[in-house]
Specification:
- The complex is a heterodimer of chains A (103) and B (307).
- Chain A is of the alpha+beta class.
- Chain A contains two helices and seven strands.
- In chain A, the strands form two sheets. Chain A has a five-stranded mixed β-sheet. In chain A, strands 4-6 form a two-stranded antiparallel sheet.
- In chain A, a hairpin with a 6-residue loop joins strand 1 and strand 2.
- In chain A, 41% of the residues are buried.
- A nine-stranded mixed β-sheet of chain B has the order 14-15-16-13-9-12-11-10-17. An eight-stranded mixed β-sheet of chain B has the order 2-3-4-1-5-8-7-6, covered by helices on one side.
- Chain B is globular and about 50 Å long.
- Chain B has 307 residues and is an alpha/beta fold.
- Classes of the chains: A alpha+beta (103), B alpha/beta (307).
- At the A-B interface, loops of A face helix 6 of B.
């Protein structure tokens, strides 16, 4: 078993995810068929996968500032699709897929 | 039938987070040709089967989404007619100078009640890389990637879709080809056409204004839709749904996302519309089939993911 793979915890679930290919948190989640974080565009544009990083070090790719401002980013907010953990991390899902209010 | 007035969707300007990644997507995967790069950083592209200079403009910035959609108008005199009609209906109308985009003449521009900006223009340079016109072959060079023929339409999300639709029908002479409505009559989706196409612009009711659902690019047939799907997987691109078919418009479709999260569609078919045709109507309880005819259910992303 590779020793360098980072462990991702989604708050509220003790089963970790593993980012084996450096694809980021959202892909790591999708790869094992879990759905705690909403899956939107997967490319940093729509905000559906917004999370708050509770612990850990990470790199963030390019994201639409409509969804995570520079100051939010400093507070630990991220989009999971562009979140590349460097150490073990724990995240809290904060985003949603907005629905119509009618129908 | 003589098409006069608004002819067709002419261009869409889309915001991208990384230009070089966007170019791989639009140029290499969709198959658009790169026409030029502006001094301000905007990049202009064109599908192989389009005569006009460009139809897609990419602008790199820190947000995704659509800046504006442009419609081509048959002649310059109509621009002032439309500007007047739009203003009389209460729209905020202004103008854009010629050459703000290279090769494009003056534009009338207005902000719609759903918060979307639309431009109208009559003049644009003819591309020297458009369809052949003398003993024409199908294309000058065989199409690349998905082989998009043209930029076809946009679907935009916002609140007052009735207000925006009214500007298009009453000022710009569009027709409503199809719509979906709640039992109380509230429209939740409106499909507008200025041509023989089932739609040139579509609007869906959404709690936020100014949102972009997708830009659509035409392919020739279901087989080409299948090939697009092959490419989407080969290049590990983000797919929303499809290949499938829409009930509304009958179009065969795949929805997928560009590297900035903007949704694209590749689309084939759809019925032909004439202005004397009755309007097709869907009830909200059939929304699943209206949007995804085979799945007969909406997915969360269709109603929730916009840029």
């Amino acid at each position: 078993m590779p020793e360098s793979r980072v462990k991702i915890l989604i708050e509220g679930d003790s089963t970790p995810l593993f980012d084996e290919r450096g694809e980021g948190v959202l892909r790591a989640m999708e790869r094992v068929g879990r759905a705690e974080i909403p899956v939107g565009c997967r490319n940093g544009g729509c905000g559906a996968c917004k999370v708050l990083v509770l612990k850990g070090e990470y790199k963030l790719g390019k994201i639409s500032r409509q969804h995570v401002t520079v100051s939010e980013e400093r507070e630990g907010y991220a989009l999971a699709c562009r979140l590349y953990p460097e150490t073990d991390i724990e995240v809290r899902p904060m985003g949603s897929l907005i629905r119509r209010t009618t129908g | 039938m003589a098409i006069q007035g608004v002819l067709r969707p002419g261009f869409v300007q889309i915001r991208v987070l990384d230009m070089e990644e966007a170019l791989v997507h639009y140029r290499d995967r969709l198959g658009l040709d790169l026409v030029s790069r502006g001094d301000d950083g905007r990049v202009y592209l064109k599908a192989y089967d389009e005569f006009d200079r460009h139809s897609l403009i990419l602008r790199e910035t820190d947000q995704a989404g659509m800046d504006m959609m442009g419609f081509k108008v048959s002649d310059d005199s109509m621009l002032d007619v439309y500007a007047q009609r739009l203003a009389e209906l209460g729209a905020e109308v202004s103008s854009v100078d010629a050459s703000e985009q290279p090769g494009v003449g003056r534009r009338v521009t207005f902000l719609s009640p759903t918060g979307h900006r639309f431009d109208l223009y009559a003049e644009i340079e003819l591309s020297d890389n458009g369809p052949m016109t003398e003993n024409p072959d199908l294309w000058r060079e065989e199409p690349r990637g998905m082989g998009a023929l043209r930029f076809d339409h946009c679907l935009l999300y916002g609140g007052d879709i009735d207000g925006t639709a009214k500007l298009f029908t009453d000022a710009l002479d569009f027709s409503i080809s199809e719509y979906a409505a709640e039992p109380d009559g509230t429209k939740i989706a409106v499909f507008l056409t200025c041509s023989n196409k089932a739609h040139d612009l579509a609007l869906v009711r959404f709690p936020e204004d100014g949102k972009f659902h997708h830009a659509s690019f035409l392919l020739e047939n279901w087989n080409d839709i299948g090939r697009a799907a092959d490419l989407l997987t080969r290049y590990d691109m983000s797919v929303d749904i499809g290949p499938t078919r829409h009930g509304i418009t009958r179009g065969q479709t795949i929805y997928f996302f560009d590297p900035s999260g903007n949704r694209n569609e590749v689309f084939a078919g759809g019925y032909d519309y004439y202005p004397d045709n009755p309007t097709r109507k869907w009830t909200a309880d059939q929304a699943g089939k209206a949007i995804f005819y085979y799945e007969r259910a909406l997915n969360d992303r269709f109603m929730g993911v916009v840029t």
